[in-house]
Please model this.
Amino acid sequence: MPRLSPKLETLRALFARSGNQCAFPGCTHPLVNGDNLFIAQVCHIEAASSGGERFNPDSDDEYRRSYENLILLCYPHHIETDDVDRYPVEKLKEMKLNHEQLFEKSNFKIDEAVLYKLKDQMDEYWEKIERTNKLEHVFQDSGLAMEVNGKASFFEVMQSAHDAIAGIEHLLESFHKSDESLLEDLRAILEKCGLDATVIDAIPYYENPFFNRNWEYHNLGSANWLQRISIDLVHLEVKYLEEYLITNSDDLKAKKRLEELMPVLEEYASNAMHVD
Model:
């Protein structure tokens, strides 16, 4: 798998806490010069790929490109810190922490022209999604086209996913009730045809295909898969909000949502189990 580039919000947070200086102790080399050019390097504490300095095979690609694993250094100090004996993981993390504490209240921002360009491209993309779905859908005239809302927020998309789970649960419950009534429905049909429905009772339940039909699917399989999806959706939302709030700490709605979800995930972590 190719190495993953750092996310835009991660880079924004790194520069905001950098003071526009190399993180190496005592170094004042700027990261961005007077012409607004980046003249330093974004460095990995644990290498992004196998064979690199301090590579951790037990880590994953998301952590390798995360805020916690990145540090901003000038080129000479990037080369110097490649000496893993003198600069192990713990020392680089301490270096990063100490540097950021020096500029805790700074408000340095890199020129975001590239970020705005990407934003414009994404705005165009979502407008295309809206146009395609609302006006150019292959089955638009049939009234059967499923909605893909390009204007929906992250929270709206997550709510739609949770609503879909609730819809699936309701559908499965309807199937369950339908299967439970199969035996009675069969008796009613036999009686309507003038046949003796009591003969069914002579068949052992374990040989009767109409008794508790699909019981395991209803009570075990679907329950386990629905819980798995529910856990993963909460987990994804917590992960997203964790990174989002690094650069959007004033978003009270996001903070409130994270506060609501954290104990939910903790509860899943301690109590969720397979139904068997």
